[in-house]
Design brief:
Length: 289
């Protein structure tokens, strides 16, 4: 896993604009937001699914970089004072503190557009129609019917108590949509899987995306800021509904394990029995930070 994390770091470094390229301050801030931190879960999922579909690594590099750029942009915007107003991300000051709010806004905008440039300027699929479908998939995953929509639901839910089904609906969009897209983009970059098999991978992505959020809620409630590299306990402080609130710590941990088991079952009949995706499912659910 570490070799893949190092590889995506190098890929992102190469695809991001050079810091000295004008406008230098914006490009420096973009690199600050993306490089030098993070678990790279979404790129790892893209690579894992791509291995099952026989995808060329150069294609996977672009799919993986695109989803990580989208993820990084979402973090920059989530941390803004108008959203979560956070001061720490990946163990360093958030972008709007290190630079300023206007620059942080532009960083997010620029990373989103760069992500689509990365997956559209070179072939990452066997034919143009499939590549357009992949671009459309990523568009939905980060728009109002995906990540941005989930964030809107989250903002509206502040101060309310949500049932587990309501939390699932919110996080299928806010967190799960991009994780799900990462898996399918990796699978679609190759050609060795049937539509039915890709649908099973999509199901895996849905379950593991929810499990990721459940574990995030648990870690936010029980870990320290130093361990997380971001502000601990901020959900409780901001009066946000979480799986810990709905199920308790033990219940949330149990639910995350159940979701992991559901995700693993979706891989049972796939090539290599799911390959590295099984390891990633354990990494997501068993992580401590």
């Amino acid at each position: 896993m570490l070799d893949r994390q190092d590889h995506i770091e190098k890929t992102l470094n190469a695809l991001l604009p050079a810091a000295e390229l004008a406008p230098a301050r914006l490009h420096t801030a973009m690199r600050y937001a993306v490089l030098g931190g993070g678990k790279r879960v979404r790129p790892l999922l893209a690579y894992g699914a791509g291995e099952l579909s026989g995808a060329d690594e150069r294609r996977l590099d672009r799919a993986a970089a695109a989803v990580e750029m989208i993820h990084a942009y979402s973090l920059v915007h989530d941390d803004l004072p108008c959203m979560d107003n956070d001061v720490l991300r990946r163990g360093k000051p958030t972008v709007h503190l290190e630079f300023d709010e206007a620059t942080a806004l532009l960083v997010g905008d620029s990373l989103q557009s760069l992500a689509f440039q990365v997956i559209s300027e070179q072939p990452i699929a066997d034919d143009a129609r499939r590549q357009v479908e992949m671009i459309e998939l990523l568009t939905r995953a980060c728009g109002s019917r995906g990540m941005a929509g989930g964030q809107a639901i989250d903002l509206e839910a502040t101060g309310r108590t949500l049932a587990v089904t309501e939390l699932e609906f919110m996080h299928v969009h806010k967190t799960g949509a991009l994780i799900r897209a990462s898996v399918v983009l990796g699978a679609r970059s190759g050609n060795a899987l049937s539509d039915a098999e890709v649908n099973k991978l999509d199901r895996f992505g849905k379950f593991i995306g929810l499990a990721f959020q459940v574990v995030d809620d648990v870690l936010d409630a029980q870990s320290s800021t130093a361990t997380l590299g971001k502000t601990a306990g901020k959900d409780a402080k901001n009066n946000k509904p979480t799986y810990v609130n709905a199920l308790g710590l033990d219940g949330a941990r149990k639910f995350a394990t159940e979701l992991r088991d559901d995700a693993l079952r979706a891989l049972d009949t796939l090539p290599l029995n799911g390959g590295r995706l099984r390891q990633l499912a354990d990494f997501i659910v068993l992580r401590r930070f």
